[in-house]
Fold this protein.
Amino acid sequence: MVNPNSSSARRPHRLRERLKEATRDAILEAAEEAFARDGVQAARMETIAKAAGVAVGTLYNHFADRTALLDALMRARRAALIRQLDDALEANPRAPFAEQLDEFMKAAQAHFTEHAGFLRVLMEAEYINVGKRVLQPGEPMRQIRDRLGVLVERGVRAKVLRADDVPYFSWFFLGSMKGLLARHMKGAAPEPLAAQRAALIRFLLGGAKAP
């Protein structure tokens, strides 16, 4: 009789878990592409299943319906984004403020470049009712603003930012960053990402007035 706690008994279980996780990841990748291309309300589960290389029944084994799938996608991408932003905040908190701001923007750009569909879904979901179970589109933005608040506090302590502008800085920065990302997503940004970040930081910290 095989001991269920033995390594040989655990191997098939671990293999099943890895296969299940790989299938789920493939479904989320296909869902991100479909929701971004076809729209949150028009994307079909059959199309997503085919793109993921699984049967429709398998898709429903993982996700009860389209709303549950959209919810899982938004939560997974949000969690990955927040981890990257947190890593950027923790990387070098004693660096000059402009460098910290650049690292933060670089982390956001990297995530949304890899998952451009997630940004499109977020933008679309801001204006439609996608179901009460779905992670609200404002939640990722709120969490980004919270982390921008950490940067703002550092900028004030370093006397780079004016304390009386603190209530506005995170909102203004986030709006500007969304604008750059949208411009890049539409293919209207020929400049390298580093140049876009540098221009935004110059504008935020120095203004648009000529020296």
